[in-house]
């Protein structure tokens, strides 16, 4: 299989590139939908915490989740440092939502927590 010639890239290479990119697009869509579901759950957690005046953050759980995700990443042959950065970003966003929900509850408003 050649990668290029005077007439342009090999059509078989372009077909394979398109196939791989289609798979990447499908995976990206699944990731977005999974994150949306995750955030629906964390919004409910935020409302429950606010209702019972629990703190928005739970450092112990966060540390356990990071350790768990790092182990899962290693098993999946994914860089554990990348997995930790990804989860840390998500956790920061969740805490931001929880703080907003708690502020809304304290002020008697019914915002979305976003």
Main sheet overview: none
Radius of gyration: 21 Å
* Poorly predicted tracts of residues: none
Helix/strand order:
HHH
Q: Please give the count of helices.
A: 3
Report how far the terminal alpha carbons are from each other.
50 Å
Residue-averaged pLDDT, rounded? 92
Q: What oligomeric state is this?
A: single chain
* Class from secondary-structure proportions: mainly alpha
Measured as a percent range, the helix fraction is over 70%
Describe the fold and architecture:
With 114 residues, the chain is mainly α. It is built from three helices and no strands. The chain is elongated and about 70 Å long. The chain starts with 10 loop residues before the first helix and ends in a 7-residue tail after the last helix. The relative contact order is 0.11.
In short:
The protein is mostly helical. It has 3 helices and no strands. The chain is elongated and about 70 Å long.
Q: What's the layout of helices and strands?
A:
Layout: H1 11-51, H2 59-75, H3 80-107
Keywords:
114 residues; 3 helices
